[in-house]
Amino acid sequence: GAGVSQSPSNKVTEKGKDVELRCDPISGHTALYWYRQSLGQGLEFLIYFQGNSAPDKSGLPSDRFSAERTGGSVSTLTIQRTQQEDSAVYLCASSLDKGTSSYEQYFGPGTRLTVT
Amino acid sequence: KQEVTQIPAALSVPEGENLVLNCSFTDSAIYNLQWFRQDPGKGLTSLLLIQSSQREQTSGRLNASLDKSSGRSTLYIAASQPGDSATYLCVVTHRDDKIIFGKGTRLHILP
Question: Do A11 and A21 meet the contact criterion of CB atoms below 8 Å apart?
Fold first, then answer.
């Protein structure tokens, strides 16, 4: 079956512009996660959705970052007024509802964001 | 604060050898622990998931163990192959829903 998909795969933007990154989770997965991996850094948790709600936004690095999820499916991560330090690979993952025995996360291929 | 540490940071071994990758975590109140591999230019591939109530999981040549009391997990790779070369990540899901990644072990299998 189809896995997690993300678009675009690559995005180059000028400093100060806004960008939107999209994630399509695996059908039926109610949990959705956003992470980022900066050059030379480990993976950093950004935000987690259970359905359409985000019980944990603690990982968002600043108020320029926001995310939404509608219909319990597709999610969009928006970065406003991008800065060069926002350059990273943004990864999305999804999993079945927490509380079941299968809580395994499946990752998308990522979006490589470069801010010039 | 949960911290996840992976040792070693990098490892090179000849093809055919068995090897062990280590992951330690500071807070035992975890929901599960998951091992991934990350290949250059690609996403993350899930290898094994261990629930907090389990002690080990096996898949093919891979075996992962979990000891919550000591805050440790190991990933055992038997009969290593060049295709096993990748970065291996240990990820802990804490009971407060925090998800913490280790920095990974870069594994290189020498043909």
Answer: yes
Residues of A in contact with B36 (CB under 8 A): 107
Question: Is residue A30 a contact partner of residue A72, using CB atoms and an 8 Å limit?
Answer: yes
Cβ contact (<8 Å) for B101 and A43?
yes
For the four alpha carbons of B44, B48, B72 and B26, in that order, the dihedral sign comes to: positive
Pairing state between β B56-59 and B62-67: antiparallel
Nearest beta carbon to residue B42 from set A43, A102, A109 = A109
What is the distance between the alpha carbons of residues B49 and B64, in angstroms, rounded to a whole number?
8
Q: Which helix (H) or strand (E) holds B54?
A: none
Phi/psi at A64 (5° precision): -75, -15
In terms of DSSP bridges, do strands B4-7 and B19-25 run parallel, antiparallel, or are they unpaired? antiparallel
pLDDT tens digits along A80-115: 999 999 999 999 999 886 554 456 788 898 999 999
